[in-house]
Amino acid sequence: MKTIQITKNIMLLIVMTIVAFSCSSDDNGGTIVPEPTAISKYVVGFEAFPVGQAAPVDYILELPSLESLTIGEISVEGQGKPLKGWRFFHSAGNTVFTAGYADDDKCISYQLDENGVLKEKTNFEFQSTLDNYAAIDDNTLIAVELSASVTDPAATSIPDRSFYIINAETGLVEKIETHPVDSSLGDGTASNLPYMPWVTGMTLRDGKLFVSYHKLLPDGTFTNVGADKANVAVFKYPEFELEKIIEDTRTSPIGVNGHSTGIEQTENGDIYSFSPSALSAGFTTAVKPSGILRIKSGATEFDPDYFFNIEEAANGGKLFWMDYVGNGKAIARIIIDDTNGAGEWGAFFKKDVFKLVVIDLNTKTVTDVSGVPVHGHRYTAPMFVENGKAYISCSTDTETHIYIVDSETATATKGAKVLGLGLKGIFKVTN
């Protein structure tokens, strides 16, 4: 019996030696390093009032799972990274970017390290506020540097717009393209006013960058010029050669100041834009209906056969914000009463201004989303969608919650409570 046991022990030792050798060496005698396991986390841009401070502060906060958005509470107390001042949030690939507004001239990038911990990757500075962003692919973020006024009274031209081409992996600026979009010094008459372009959205398709914009008086008042038409500049990309300006007189300028985008692309390459034409959304005049235009796949002109007048549609009104979900559907905020805060940017700050709807771009229908109260919220990042569900931060006078919206059924489920002013962006990143 002892002989049998000794034999078993020897055989076990041989097997263990072989296994250990196999795990520690490759065929060339080198050590095999196991592949690291990819870790994914959810990251939010969080706006809150710190205790003892009068002004709100933005934070970046990592969450362990998608469930964190659906139940319980989200707070930065004892966690999260406080940032400087009011900020924009955006992402490209697995990098989250946050750029300062009035109080900070720095754009910071964040990524997960090899241990799955959110860390600052790098940062860069800019001259004027980066006020519009677009992830044109997983590797590239474009940010546009905008100024609202020409301060030199002797100026003989309107300053060009600066497009920052940012590498999503390194978080650094690869180049800056300074280029005119559409501007005029006018001649001093009411029929030929000076204006400068204010970019409101960008999307890349087939080597062409489509850029939507407003025309504003170059005096810092954000007064609309030519509010009776929609405008898009078409650039050859990456050369940044301006090919054409396209216009449409069926609706007003595209997009809203300071939001993610006014122009988006669907799965089949069609491009849709939305126009608010709303006095409570920063427009100084509203002479055309709020609506949606289309640029068909392969085309570089607005489709003359497509216009969706949102104001005339059942359940419609004036659009404030719209994001494409997929399958021909978009989720949007519609202003309930445009006189509420008209002329004073009320839609940006009030808490009783929006209802949430699903827009079917193909059938031209608007459906109210059940389960979401009348609310307010200024969202600076594209809507977060996972597994066909959209996760949206909505604030009332008393509280802020995440709502999980099913665009197919136009229903929503109340998710986690946000112990702060709201979430400016929700992102998923992987190391």
UniProtKB/TrEMBL annotation:
PROSITE patterns: PROKAR_LIPOPROTEIN. Residues 1-24 form the signal peptide. SUPFAM superfamilies: DPP6 N-terminal domain-like. It comes from the Bacteria. The keyword Signal applies. Keywords: Signal. This is DUF4374 domain-containing protein. It comes from Aquimarina mytili. The lineage of its organism: Bacteria, Pseudomonadati, Bacteroidota, Flavobacteriia, Flavobacteriales.
